[in-house]
Amino acid sequence: MNDMEEQDKSVTYYLIPSNVSAKFEFFEGFGWSELKTVAIALAIGALIFFLSGFITSSERVEKSKMTYDQTIGLKIGKNIFEDGNYYILKKEIIPLPIRVLFVVVPTLGAYFFVKRDPSTKMSLISTIKFSRAFRKRQRRYLYKYGSGAEG
């Protein structure tokens, strides 16, 4: 017993006020673990963005059928290739604004799923988990025989 009392005296206890978070947060309800989840969603969205850029269609146009106005802006290189008497024009099937949504939607979705509500200290994903566990739990209904219409 004497050793326990000596250990208790050597330990310093600090009291943390109730409205001070014990973990580091960038702003209320969003810390390192939430940032990691959002960064993973951002990386997945960026991967989808770049992969969707490879989906293109090719159009083969004869050089002699193109007018002068159509050839002014042509520069052989990234999207236009020469093939003998033809130009091969490559066009993206999915436009850039739609491809940007492939990055924005997963990132914002992950943010709203993992950010904790300041009043309940629970995120949307933890609320869904708790509600599913509650629905699976066995219920007890307390009532008295003879107190209702069965008597």
Description:
This protein has 151 residues and is of the alpha+beta class. The chain contains five helices and five strands; from the N terminus they run αββαβαββαα. Strand 4 and strand 5 form a beta hairpin. It is elongated and about 95 Å long.
Offer a few descriptive terms:
single chain, alpha+beta, 5 strands, 151 residues
Counted beta strands? 5
Order of helices and strands: HEEHEHEEHH
User: Unreliable runs, pLDDT <50, ≥5 residues?
Assistant: none
User: Structural class of the helix and strand makeup?
Assistant: alpha+beta
Number of helices: 5
Strand order of the largest sheet: 3-5-4
* Global Rg: 32 Å
- The fraction of residues in strands falls at 15-25%
Overall form: elongated
**What fraction, in percent, of the residue positions are helical?**
40-55%
Distance between the termini: 63 Å
* Overall pLDDT: 80
User: Largest beta sheet, briefly?
Assistant: 3 strands, antiparallel
Topology (SSEs and partners):
Elements: H1 2-10, E1 25-27, E2 30-31, H2 32-52, E3 56-62, H3 68-72, E4 80-83, E5 86-92, H4 96-114, H5 124-136
Antiparallel strand pairs: 1-2, 3-5, 4-5
Helix pairs in contact: 2-4
Short structural summary:
This protein is 44% helix and 15% strand.
